[in-house]
Amino acid sequence: MAIEIQGLVRRYGPVEALRGINLSIPSGGIVGLLGPNGAGKTTLVEILEGLREPTAGSVTVLGIDPTRQSRALRQRIGVQLQSTALPLDLTAGEVVRLYASFYERPLAAGQVLDRVDLAAQARTLTRNLSGGQRQRLALAIALVHDPELLILDEPTTGLDPQARRALHELVRRFRAEGKSVILTTHYIEEAEQICDRVVMIRSGTVVADGTPFDLMGRAGGTSTLWIACEGAFDPALLARDGVTYNGPEGVHHRYATRDPAAAIVVLGDLLREHRVTLTDLRLRRPTLEDVYLELVGEPADAGVAT
Amino acid sequence: MSVLRAATALFIGHLKTFLRSRTALYWSLAFPLFFLFIFGFVFGHSSPEGIGFLLPGLLTITVISGSFYGVAMRVVSEREAGILRRHRVTPVSPVAVVLAYAAMGLVTLVLSLLLQIVVARLVFHAHIAAAPGSLAVVLVSGALALIPLGLIVGSVARDMRTAPAISNLVFFPLMFLSGAAIPFMMLPEWMQSAARFVPTTWLVESLQGLLVRGEGLASLAGPVTVLLLTSVAGIALNSLLFRWEGTEPVRPRRLLAAFAVLGALYLGVHLLAPALEMATYQP
Predict the structure, then answer these.
(1) Which of A51, A75, A141 is the closest to B91 by Cβ?
(2) ipTM of this model?
(3) Contact state of B13 with A94 under an 8 Å Cβ cutoff
(4) In the predicted model, is pLDDT for residue B45 greater than 80?
(5) What's this model's pTM, rounded to 2 decimal places?
(6) Which among A1, A190, B165, B256 has most CB atoms closer than 10 A?
(7) Edge-to-edge strands, sheet with A15-25
(8) Share of chain B above pLDDT 90, in %
């Protein structure tokens, strides 16, 4: 197990930021903690990093208690904080060498920069790097000791889509080496694209946990079906057994259903019966975002205070 | 040793950052010279001895400002920027981090003191009779005493707004009570006795012994010992007060313990240390 969390509670005065989290994360793969600002994601990862102590409950990371043996743990985990401050007057190479000196068995600076595609910037001062490059340098110093587990707190917040994709690629490369990644995000697409497992958090509790594919199927979300036909067809005919007709949309007719497979079977029968040709069919399944909105109950980017 | 390796790397990082920053160079090297020129032109140009009388005070002020503005501000600004927080999620020892700040403080102080002495000699023709070795011992002891105190201010100050306020609060008593700014003989008697509670007094005393009274290191063993004891106490207290993040509370008990230790040390000094010769010395 990479991470074992049982009954984790964290209070800040009267505020309960984490209200009893249970989570087992096996080694290997990318796990995303998804939730709005203030849901407790950062508190959770900071407890895993040994930066905060739990109020109650037990936590082990790589079999180590992060509060009591933080030094031993930090030899084996790589951390990227939510807003990493880098020494601005040092070059990328110097920054990597500085952090390498903190570990027992660091990798060579050149190798690390190469891994995050910053080899060409080795002699560039950090202050002259772009936002995406700085974020990759922050990842480089998290990788400098070849850790078993990477903990990334909102690694792509504020990056443009291209820089975000580049960072995703680096995280995937790390996973391909058989290592574990846990990252927080409030971008649903990000969770959908790179996470093998998504844990949704709302107000300090886990509200959903599974693969993105799994979660999309599990939710009682409604699919939308559009059809366009040639020939005389009464669109109301399909509106039965859990299928609702929502009227025309251009040449299409739009339906809502919780069971699109059954609706399509019925549609096939109707088409044959009325000798109508189907010219177009579109289906929109519930996305991770729909599941998120259903379970977390608010748009991902809206902040709530906890 | 992993602590030394990390401390060396951190120190080299500080040094490179320092050399690449014009403001840092200005405040730590040019600013002390500015003082030398002002005092030199106002009081010192009458005779080479004149600047000799001023040097103990000027060098002491440089040590105070290097410790409380240079070192303390470096700690606070790096903590405020979140660099210390980033260090914290690595296995680096806080001892290495503090050592690197101290070493950097010492190097900048040595550089600015050296520059001041050289300029005093070349521009104002100050004649410095003291043996260079003895002068180095006294100045380094003074820096070693004051830098840990600067580090403590760096740990206690919450951010870059409170840090200068706390530094000023410490700076002025250290400067005025010690006789670094105003000749000691001109201070009222109660201030002269309060001066024995202030580390910089012993630095001014040692420097006056060397530069004004022409004594050797042997006769200054008392004041130099006080400086070194202050250094040891200051280093020990640092490990009690060091903070990685501004959000970590300053533990009031530890702060109280720090004040108590320094207070006890100086009470002992007050009772045991030799009389201050600068109180009686008439040039």
Answers:
(1) A75
(2) 0.89
(3) yes
(4) no
(5) 0.88
(6) A190
(7) A15-25, A3-12, A56-61
(8) 52
